[in-house]
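Data deposition worksheet. Section B asks for the primary sequence of the deposited chain exactly as it was used as input, without tags or linkers unless they were present during the calculation. Section C holds the resulting structure in token form. Section D is free text for depositor observations; keep each observation to a single sentence. Incomplete worksheets are returned to the depositor.
Section A, Depositor: J.P.
Section B:
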Amino acid sequence: MASDLAALLQPTVLLYWMLGMIFGIFVGATPGLTATMGVALIVPISFYLPPEAGLAMIIGVSFTAIFAGDIPATYLRIPGTPASTVATLDSHELARQGRAPFALLLNLCCSAIGGLIGVILFIVLARQLASVALRFSSFEFFWLAVVGLSLSAVVSVGSTFRGILAALLGMLIRTVGVDMVSATPRFSFDNTDLAAGINFIPAMIGLFGLSEVLRSVGSRVSVTSAVVPRGESTSAREVGRAIWQYKGTIAGSSLLGTFVGALPGAGADIAAWVAYGLAHRLSGEVAKFGSGSVAGVVAPTSANNAAVAGAWIPALVLGIPGDSVTAIVLGALVTYNIQPGPEIFVTNSHDVQRIFLIALITQFLLIPCGFFGIRAFGWILRLPRSVVYTGVIVFSVLGAYAPNSSLFDIWVMVAFGVLGYFLERWRVPLAPLILGMILGPMVEENLRVGLIKSDGSPLPFFTRPICAALVLGLAAMLVVPLATRWFSSRQSTTDGPPTE
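Section C:
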């Protein structure tokens, strides 16, 4: 262990490590350049470096890119990655109140804490959590996706009905394309581009990026006027006090994020929304959520990075990627003669210890790298309004084009920008729509696969123990607030008007 630590702390290794993490900051903070793309780009470069430096760059990029997506989400309400959609709520509202440095530094510290807790759980409970993850089948994944969608709709700003409507609209949009079971086109109208489906990345950029520019131009208010750093500062004491005050939320969200991340296919976006929804339900400041709640900042960002660590559990122990990032990492590990699977702790124990150390140290290096990213983005926002508008539009176009090198995706981005502009005027929340697009295929696929397994019977969706627990939790989440509101109204009616 000591020799591995000495090898990782060599100046050459640390240099490549930090460069990789700064690259991850750039990728995560650029809409359209996802963490998956960042890891895919860094893997070929890592093969030309010493094994320690190569592994450090790969792992470092995966953690920093997830955090960095919250930077544009906070400043501009444009999520850098799908997992950063939650940051467009409370973190952005704090920025609009002139507290962007506080929101982002708190976000950064909680990302490191969540990642640290996730890595520690990864080290201690990898085998046990992997065995739990194996118990999830299509029946359980269906309800997990439904819970994530419901939470995004219920806790969004505004009417719950509008939130549910937005989530259903997102699911409907993702049905465009080739049917996953019958392989027949749906709603494509003989258009080859539509037959490939609607990519949620250009849609996300349009909804949150271009629509914000359209709204700002229409109201003649700068897209950055409320959030440009103008000398505001925050102290380490203020951030530390907030972390201590919400330590229970941070710890609980990190535990939840690790578990959700360990479920193959779940990912950091589901973890963030589930943690946000749970914090919303358990917090004593429910009314503040969506308008600058500190709990609404620390919960999703802690769960995000914890989920990245959790995704390594099935990847390393079972050889099953927890998300698209770890799927790429699995291929890279094989080239380093590390064979993931149940026997890895016997056949590659030395390499496993090295991965553990890299993941732990990465959480501490995230602080300086993330701070650099926050400051750099703040400098960019000080540019003239016209330059910032142009930059947002240019990066929106590049971000929409980059994933598939498709001009059609640029038009998708423009269409969703216009749609987002009108939805906001009608007070329909945008975050549930994006999550509906992300989780829609997961809901449909697991529902149909489950029905095929059960010969068309829906009973296993309710009778399996984990499914029953998820259904009860979902019912409680939806019914308890309504019952509480009804009881409060009855109580006020019974008491009658005050007498003089």
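Section D:
The chain is about 75% helix and 0% strand.
The mean pLDDT is 81.
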